[in-house]
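Now for my pick.
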Amino acid sequence: MVSGADEGGTTARPAVPAQAPAATREVRDAEAGGGLGASLAYLLSRAERSVNRGLSAALAAEEVTVEQWRILQALADGRGHSMGDLAGAALMPHPTLTKAVDRLVERAVVYRGHDPADRRKVAVFLANRGSELLSRLEAGIAEHHRAILATYGAVRTERLMRDLEHLVRSLDG
């Protein structure tokens, strides 16, 4: 028999301690009140990822990303927005926003035009196809929201949303 092989002829490997899955480690850290689990920024990021995972699934049938949905929602007021205003509303850096808007222009769901307040500036507007797209997305978005309410509870969800709005206003001044 070859040295290092077991009776079945396979090479024996030293025992390696099993690694806990990342999610288990994250939960353990959060429960222990230390490490990343003690960081508000970390917990908010984890919550955002969880919420956006479900939102992404709701948008997938129309091949719309969460970021593109934010852009479309911001433009739904019909006023047109500068790229700077749109970047703030969609929570996106300018270069990323420009690429996302370019893709939406290619799909003919948004268009660039003159800013009504200052014809020298360019604004982005929601096209009729964009309004139709948002209408088609409404059912999936509503279902996603209902799933959160069912899982987390309506009262807790509303309180969380109010608390997060208050946190943002407090931090942004």
